[in-house]
Design goal:
The chain is an alpha/beta fold. The protein is built from 18 helices and 32 strands. It has a five-stranded mixed β-barrel. Strands 18-19-20-22-21 form a five-stranded mixed β-barrel. The longest helix is centred in the last third of the chain and has 19 residues. It is elongated. The site of FE3-S4 cluster has 15 residues, from α1, α4 and α8.
């Protein structure tokens, strides 16, 4: 027969200790790292850490500047953080998230001038750390202390916040709470007991009651280990509290048919393994090992578990306490927990109860594309809703989505009252509009309030994030209606106010073309529309704005003029640097021969394009050396001809051209040249030569 040894699943490191030890190991390296006090109360682990240059020190003054200091899972007061910062040390905060939560509660209570009452051991490092976040505080370790304080102290009438040490026995908490509740009408209570200790105690009692001998591995100086041994002694006559395998007496297991093994929260896995090996050897000849469901590999026994903390009352049986623990969670409860692990399909949550909590991906969010690693990080505190409790498997299915929905409904109702803007994801398009998920609440947005132009396809909005305002709530039918358009309207008005405050001539904007007319384009420059006249759209000859731009195009514009009273802005688009006249005068001279294209015939001559955007005039007298009735007798629009540049008037931007000057034997007389000059009212840049003077102020759309 093989030895029958039952190993507690909860033996070894709890979640907070495991996290702290791993942080210490991961920050070790060639430079020494320091912990403020031993990271755990186990000399084997402290020796191991010293071997990898993680040293325990008594105070900040013992740590050289620039080095790393690790705060252990017990946590420290606020002042210690300040001193670490002043000392120029690098901080690694391994405070257990459950303890950190108590710090936040104490700090918030202090901010509100509330008295903080801590139920716990005033000498325990965790309680000392908590007091470091309080202003006015008192600590009680028993109901008797609470009673005598109440009888002597009027401060009991003051607003107070009552917290517990994480390892406090639940019976002590309940007794103290009951007394305070009766006397202190201004008290609020936060049950901050961590339940890792409780599960360890329950399981130890369970195993001890079924074994001939019980071995507890832990620090004999630790009150938690001593308590574990006491609990086991009530269930088993032969109990040994040892710190390692070497302390197990040789005769301890003689004659044992079955033995149990558990360990305190500071006992490393390898120490438990050595003890198990020694027990196996000792029992090898006297008992058989029976592998039962709850006898597991040691690796499994150090699985980090935070479970319901409960003090064993003298009158309460273990079964009653177990039952009590099971009843701590019910479907529909709101519970806080700490994220222990994240996988692509679920999040494991330490709830501080006996149950292993998990949130399936489908219960995280309405967003089907959500990635759990984007939402959760290990150690993060989460508030969830209990969906299903499975006492047989010891699991509890949680939902964040449903809690968000409940809270979301409250937020949506509040938003309806206050008119604040909310954000959500468009989940579907349906008849007449779209549905937006806002904090888990379905909000219907009619097509007319979608912010899109009439008859646009709403499907483009699906899966996008939108801002909206709640316009109507039907509480009975739980129907909520919202408007995206209302938000856009306000945003646009705000932007418009800003534009009008800052506008000045010459100011540049990057705008968007909103609409086109035959005489120009309306351009949105940020909540306000200005008009760009067709003549301002291009240096080249264009018939209408749609020749060069379309609705939706981005357009760089500048302010030509504006009228704040009439709310009109005239915008320009053409840049001086692009002016074709400048290009022409730097590349052409009087006397040059160029090929031109006849673009317009007039009674006095023909306009010809010298280069894009620049036209010159061939006076009727310079078309040929013969007398002609009109330019059309010789030239046609679109015809290309060689001409000589006979005059460039830079000031008036006029060019005179001559075909006749190129004809053999023909000489220009002074009167010819005078006749060939361009009339003053005609300028050479083509974009301006023919444009009607329709430019003016523009209407704001
Ligand atoms: Fe944290 Fe609970 Fe352990 S408070 S350190 S997980 S006992």
């Amino acid at each position: 027969m093989e030895p029958n040894i039952k190993v507690a699943k909860s033996a070894g490191f709890c979640f907070g200790v495991d996290r702290a030890v791993n942080l210490a190991i991961s920050h070790s390296g060639s430079d020494p790292v320091y912990t403020l006090g031993p990271i755990i109360h186990n000399r084997h682990m402290v020796d191991y850490l010293a071997g990898i240059r993680v040293f325990s020190v008594d105070g900040i003054q013992d740590i050289p500047k620039g080095h790393t200091v690790i705060i252990r899972s017990h946590g420290v007061g606020k002042e210690t953080y300040d001193r670490i910062s002043e000392a120029g040390l690098r901080l690694v905060d391994a405070t257990c998230p459950f303890v950190k939560r108590i710090h936040r509660l104490a700090e918030a209570a202090t901010r509100e001038n509330r008295l903080v009452v801590v139920i716990g051991d005033i000498a325990h490092p965790e309680v000392i750390g908590i007091l470091g976040w309080c202003g006015n505080a008192v600590v009680f370790s028993s109901a008797d202390q609470v009673s005598s304080w109440l009888s002597e102290n009027t401060a009991a009438l003051a607003p107070m916040t009552v917290l517990s040490q994480t390892t406090l026995g639940r019976d002590t908490w309940i007794e103290c709470k009951d007394i305070l509740k009766k006397e202190c009408t201004n008290a609020v209570f936060f049950d901050t007991i961590c339940n890792a200790t409780d599960l360890r105690r329950q399981e130890a009692a369970d195993i001890a009651s079924a074994c001939d001998c019980m071995v507890i591995v832990g620090d004999p100086m630790s009150s938690n280990s001593a308590r574990l041994a006491d609990i086991c002694r009530k269930k088993c006559n032969s109990v040994y509290l040892i710190s390692d395998a070497g302390e197990l007496p040789p005769s301890a297991l003689t004659g044992c048919h079955s033995a149990g093994l558990t360990a305190g929260a500071s006992t490393p896995e390898w120490v438990i393994k050595e003890v198990l090996l020694k027990m196996t050897e000792e029992m090898n000849n006297t008992a058989a090992i029976q592998t039962e469901d709850n006898a597991t590999e040691v690796k499994e026994t150090v699985e980090n578990t935070a479970s319901a903390s409960m003090d064993f009352g003298e009158d309460e049986t273990f079964e009653q306490m177990l039952e009590h623990s099971f009843k701590t969670l019910n479907t529909g409860d709101k519970v806080n927990g700490i994220v222990a692990s994240v996988t692509p399909t679920e999040v494991r949550v330490e709830l501080g109860t006996k149950h292993a909590g998990y949130i399936p991906v489908s219960e995280v969010s309405d967003d089907p594309t959500v990635k759990l690693e984007d939402v959760f990080t290990v150690g993060q505190e989460v508030e969830t809703y209990v969906l299903r409790v499975n006492d047989v498997e010891g699991t509890v299915m949680l939902s964040k989505r449903r809690l968000d929905s409940v809270k979301g409904w409250e937020d949506v109702e509040a938003a309806r009252e206050s008119g604040v803007t909310l954000e959500g994801i468009v989940t579907e398009e349906n008849k007449g509009g779209i549905v937006v998920s806002v904090k888990g609440v379905r909000v219907f947005v009619p097509a007319s309030q979608s912010g899109l132009p009439k008859d646009s396809s709403l499907s483009a909005l699906v899966k996008t994030r939108v801002k909206l305002r709640i316009t109507d709530i039907n509480r009975v039918r739980r129907r909520v209606v919202g408007s995206i358009r209302a938000v856009q309207f306000d945003e646009r008005r705000e932007m418009a106010d800003k534009v009008w405050q800052e506008i000045e001539n010459g100011k540049k904007y990057s705008g968007v073309v909103k609409s086109l007319t035959t005489y120009g384009a309306f351009v949105d420059i940020g909540g306000v529309d200005g008009m760009v006249h067709v003549s301002e759209l291009s240096w080249n000859r264009i018939r209408q704005p749609s020749d060069v731009i379309s609705v939706g195009d981005k357009l760089d514009v500048y302010v030509i003029s504006f009228d704040k009273e009439k709310r009109k802005i005239s915008l320009g688009h053409r840049l001086t640097t692009d002016n074709p006249w400048n290009k022409f005068v730097t590349t052409h001279n009087v006397g040059d021969t160029v090929k031109v294209k006849v673009v317009k015939l007039m009674p006095f001559g023909a306009f010809a394009e010298v280069m894009p955007g620049v036209d010159g005039l061939i006076h009727i007298s310079q078309i040929t050396n013969r007398r002609i009735g009109k330019p059309g007798d010789v030239l046609a629009e679109g015809q290309e001809v060689d001409v000589k540049i006979t005059e460039i008037d830079n000031e008036k931007q006029k060019i005179s051209l001559s075909i006749r000057a190129l004809l053999e034997g023909d000489q220009l007389s002074d009167s010819d040249i005078a006749n060939a000059s361009l009339p003053d009212e005609i300028v050479a840049v083509s974009g301006e030569s023919e444009s009607a003077d329709t430019a003016g102020d523009t209407d704001e759309a």
